[in-house]
Each structure stands twice: as structure tokens, then as C-alpha cells.
Amino acid sequence: MADAPASSDMFDEIVMAEERFHGEGYQEGYAEGSHVGVVEGRRYGSLHGAKMGSEIGCYLGFALTWQCLLQKCTDEKNCKKIRALDSLIGMIQKFPYEDPTYDKLQEDLEKIRGKFKQVCSMLNIQSDFRIGTERSSLTF
């Protein structure tokens, strides 16, 4: 009778092997997927963060350049342009660059884009920077 418990343990191991291997495979796959997800998420975030930074940097450089160009003009028409440029610069300076968890990040970016288009309209400049028939790499 001593052989009965040993043989039943052997059969239990065979029967439970599928469940055990399924569980182990799930744990290994979950760990690998988590690691790959973190790496992919970091790469995606870096890429899109760089694009956003490049876009906002372009807007800031544009606004500062035009602010310097219009500085000496004192008529009412140019004063409105300068106020709009100052508003754009202020929006860009308040933008939370270092807080990716900021709830209104996309909303604030859309406001900056809208203000940029408004300024371009006031300056009679195409906001997508088209040069001839081909598009520039500065298009956002």
C-alpha cells in the first residue's frame, strides 16, 4: 500500500503540469511584456516630447524674432501685433515643459497653436510655412 500514495502523487503532477506550466508561462510573459512596455513607452514619450518641444521652440523663436522686428514701430496696428506676440510668448513661458502628468497639456498646446495662427494671420504670414509648392519641414 505504500506504493499507492507515491503513484497518485506522480499522476497528480502529470495532471497538474498543464496548469503549473500555464501559470509559469503567464508570469514570465507578464514580466517580459511589462519590461518591453516600459521600454517602448519611454521611446514613444521621448519621441513625442521632442516633437512637442521642437514645435514650441519654433513658435517661441518666431515670436521673439517678430517682437524684435516690430519693436521700433509705434503705430496702433503694430501695437496690436506686439500685444499678440507678447501674449504668445507669455503662453509659451507658462507652458509646463517638465510635467508630463499635467492634465491640460494638450489643451494648453492647442491654445498656443491657436494663438500662433492668430499672430500669423495678423502678420499676413502662412502658419504652415509653405515654401512654393513643397512643404517645409517646419510644418506642425
Describe the structure.
This protein has a two-stranded antiparallel sheet. Helices cover 76% and strands 3% of the residues. It has three helices and two strands, in the order H-H-H-E-E. Helix 2 (76-94) runs antiparallel to helix 3. The protein has helices spanning 3-70, 76-94, 105-123; strands spanning 130-131, 134-135.
Unreliable residue runs:
130-134
* Quaternary state of the chains: single chain
State the helicity in percent bands: over 70%
| Discrete helix count | 3
Q: Which word captures the global form?
A: rod-shaped
Mean pLDDT: 83
Order of helices and strands: HHHEE
Radius of gyration: 30 Å
Find the count of extended strands (DSSP E, 2+ residues). 2
Largest beta-sheet details: 2 strands, antiparallel
Strand content: under 5%
Main β-sheet, spatial strand arrangement = 1-2
Helix/strand structural class: mainly alpha
Distance between the termini: 80 Å
Record the SSE blueprint.
Blueprint: H1 3-70, H2 76-94, H3 105-123, E1 130-131, E2 134-135
Antiparallel strand pairs: 1-2
List descriptors.
single chain; 140 residues; mainly alpha; two-stranded antiparallel ribbon; 76% helix; rod-shaped
Structure described in brief:
With 140 residues, the protein is mostly helical. Helix content is 76%, strand content 3%.
